[in-house]
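Hi support team,

I've been running sequence recovery on a batch of backbones for a student project. Most finish fine, but this one hangs at about 90% for roughly twenty minutes before it completes. I'm not sure whether the input is malformed or the queue is just slow. I've pasted the structure tokens below so you can try to reproduce it. Let me know if you need the job ID as well.

Thanks,
M.K.
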């Protein structure tokens, strides 16, 4: 006779991590180069008994990460329950020289009375420029887009499934394909919910292409993206011939002929949306939208089926122009924007920089003109440079030459660019390299 004994023990598993960069960062939930932020992680007890007084120490071998506070308390965790160390967060700093998208490997040792376990995970430093989701049965559109963006220097990823956490990307490109073989983003799908959340709650930027997405899909089970994208779908046509860019927009001077079967929804701009492509019959087929907290581009043609001409009429230039609109707000300077202009500070470019940096902004006419300035602070919060007498209206630019108000060259490091205009206040980070 051999007696048996059942032993109950806690079993901790890693669930997720959260970055809190409110105090010393830009409050986007991502640890950016040059940023110091709190970090807390969520764990789950999948064992059969309570994990008492859980405490953890973390370490990181990445040369780009400095751990300022590596200890965190999780309290006691009942079986099948989750907990985090938000009340006692870890704290870390990412080097200003960290390449965008770098993944840092974190090792955590967890203690609960006599129980000890090790949990490992990675955190991403900085947002990658883009993620391409290609649910179209034909993989070529997204794959070609990925190749072009990589070749012109952007950093991103491509997949046939939608990334579950889009906050790690500045822009999302979605390729749904051409009728009748296009992919329909169902109105009740997880993907539709993720895209809407990315735009409305994470200040995302989305490019969405497809013939059917705008007009026919919402009439069946497809999600209706029109309001979010500043579009109004009003019909369908077989798209042939020539596409024309719009003067004053980032498609100015572009002209493309269409290759392949490229049926098209007709989409007119509404609200903050504005036309970026039409055909020779003046039908509206592509609209961009600067909605303030997010930006979008919606097209009813497949970018991969455009035939390259002479620059600027190439897919390379078009994709670069879309990215610059997403990242910096470039290409919205047409006078008609003044009727719906919002005060806005774009991300400085290039960033990091060596000698000069371009600071693009726009100020609504209704802003309080007695309280408008552009200020640059160093990492200690000391005012380094102040620009007054700023131009009012859309698409203005200040060039900072990395000198203070006395004309002295400032040292390399992290700086913060702040635009003040009436009740508007926004800060963007700029990294000066040696």
């Amino acid at each position: 006779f051999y007696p048996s004994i059942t032993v109950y023990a806690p079993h901790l598993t890693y669930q997720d991590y959260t970055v809190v960069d409110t105090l010393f960062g830009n409050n986007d939930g991502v640890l950016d180069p040059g940023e110091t932020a709190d970090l807390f992680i969520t764990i789950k007890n999948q064992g059969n008994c309570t994990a008492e007084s859980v405490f953890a120490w973390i370490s990181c071998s990445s040369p780009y990460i400095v751990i300022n506070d590596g200890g965190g308390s999780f309290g006691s965790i009942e079986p099948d329950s989750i907990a985090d160390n938000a009340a006692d967060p870890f704290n870390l700093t990412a080097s200003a020289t960290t390449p965008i998208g770098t993944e840092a490997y974190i090792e955590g040792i967890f203690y609960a009375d006599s129980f000890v376990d090790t949990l490992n995970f990675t955190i991403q430093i900085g947002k990658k420029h883009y993620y391409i989701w290609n649910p179209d049965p034909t993989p070529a559109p997204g794959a070609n887009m990925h190749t072009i963006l990589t070749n012109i220097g952007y950093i991103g990823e491509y997949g046939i499934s939608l990334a579950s956490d889009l906050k790690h990307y500045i822009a999302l490109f979605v390729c749904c394909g051409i009728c009748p073989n296009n992919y329909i983003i169902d109105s009740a799908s997880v993907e539709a919910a993720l895209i809407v959340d990315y735009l409305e709650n994470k200040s995302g930027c989305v490019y969405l292409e497809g013939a059917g997405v705008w007009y026919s899909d919402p009439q069946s089970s497809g999600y209706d993206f029109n309001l979010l994208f500043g579009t109004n779908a009003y019909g369908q046509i077989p798209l042939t011939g020539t596409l024309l860019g719009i003067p004053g927009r980032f498609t100015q001077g572009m002209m493309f002929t269409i290759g392949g079967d490229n049926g098209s929804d007709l989409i007119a701009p509404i609200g903050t949306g504005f036309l970026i492509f039409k055909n020779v019959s003046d039908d509206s087929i592509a609209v961009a939208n600067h909605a303030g907290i997010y930006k979008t581009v919606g097209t009813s043609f497949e970018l991969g089926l455009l035939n390259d001409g002479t620059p600027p009429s190439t897919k390379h230039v078009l994709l670069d122009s879309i990215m610059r609109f997403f990242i910096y707000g470039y290409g919205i300077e047409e006078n008609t924007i003044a009727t719906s202009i919002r005060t806005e500070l774009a991300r400085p470019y290039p960033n990091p920089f060596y000698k000069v940096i371009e600071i693009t902004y726009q100020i609504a006419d209704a802003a309080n003109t007695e309280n408008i300035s552009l200020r640059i602070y160093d990492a200690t919060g000391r005012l380094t440079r102040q620009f007054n007498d700023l131009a009012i209206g859309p698409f203005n630019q200040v060039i900072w030459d990395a000198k203070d108000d006395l004309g002295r060259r400032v040292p390399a490091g992290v700086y913060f660019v702040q635009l003040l205009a009436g009740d508007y206040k926004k800060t963007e980070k700029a990294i000066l390299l040696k």
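--
Follow-up from support: It reproduced on our side and the slowdown came from queue contention, not your input. The mean pLDDT is 87. No action needed from you.
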